[in-house]
Amino acid sequence: RRSRARIDDAFVQLLHVRSYEAIRVSDIAKKARIGRATFYAHYDSKGSLLRSQFMRVIEPMILLRPADPCLFDCTALFAHILSARQLYRSVAGARVIRDCLENRLRTLLEQSSLPLAVPVPAVSCMVASSLNSFLDWWLEHEGDNSALRMQSMWSAVIGGGLGSIRS
């Protein structure tokens, strides 16, 4: 447990100063003061480490709101990004982030009883891609809007389409 915590902490510290693409497993191991073999005993790859962090920290911040045309409340995610902009800039564009968003949205939709006229995998793929692009745009433009304002804009962008796919 202690090694995993050291790996997780080292990874987050590195993300504050380097982009995800610029970080190597050896950098994480060195920062965590462990060997590469210890890293691989806990994670298959740098991507699986990022996925683990996403699932632990980010997934709970995306909620399903069936009564809202947007369906998804990302206010907590937007607030978290405001508090850690550099970290999110570091991982922006990483395919694993979009995949994690898609998985979270698919899980929420599958667990709901919402009748949809479009298959859940198609909806989760489209919404995850849109959310990922929306976050990238926000980070590129200094992210100076509040979390509630971002949720309002996100809802305006995506709500009309999602509202129309309910069967």
Explain this structure:
With 167 residues, this protein is mostly helical. Helix content is 68%, strand content 2%. It contains 9 helices and 2 strands; from the N terminus they run ααααββααααα. Strands 1-2 form a two-stranded antiparallel sheet. A hairpin with a 7-residue loop joins strand 1 (63-64) and strand 2 (72-73). Helix 4 packs across helix 7 and helix 5 (75-83) packs antiparallel against helix 9 (147-163). The longest helix has 21 residues, at 120-140. It is globular. 28% of the residues are buried. The mean pLDDT is 91.
SSE blueprint and pairings:
Layout: H1 2-15, H2 25-32, H3 36-42, H4 46-58, E1 63-64, E2 72-73, H5 75-83, H6 85-91, H7 95-111, H8 120-140, H9 147-163
Antiparallel strand pairs: 1-2
Helix pairs in contact: 1-2, 4-7, 5-9, 7-8
Outline the low-pLDDT stretches. none
H/E topology pattern: HHHHEEHHHHH
Q: Largest beta sheet, briefly? A: 2 strands, antiparallel
Number of helices: 9
Helix content: 55-70%
- According to DSSP, the number of beta strands is 2
Radius of gyration: 17 Å
Strand order of the largest sheet: 1-2
Shape: globular
Q: Round the mean pLDDT to the nearest integer and report it.
A: 91
- For the record, give the distance between the C-alpha atoms at the N and C termini, rounded to a whole number: 46 Å
* Structural class estimated from helices and strands: mainly alpha
Q: Give the strand content.
A: under 5%
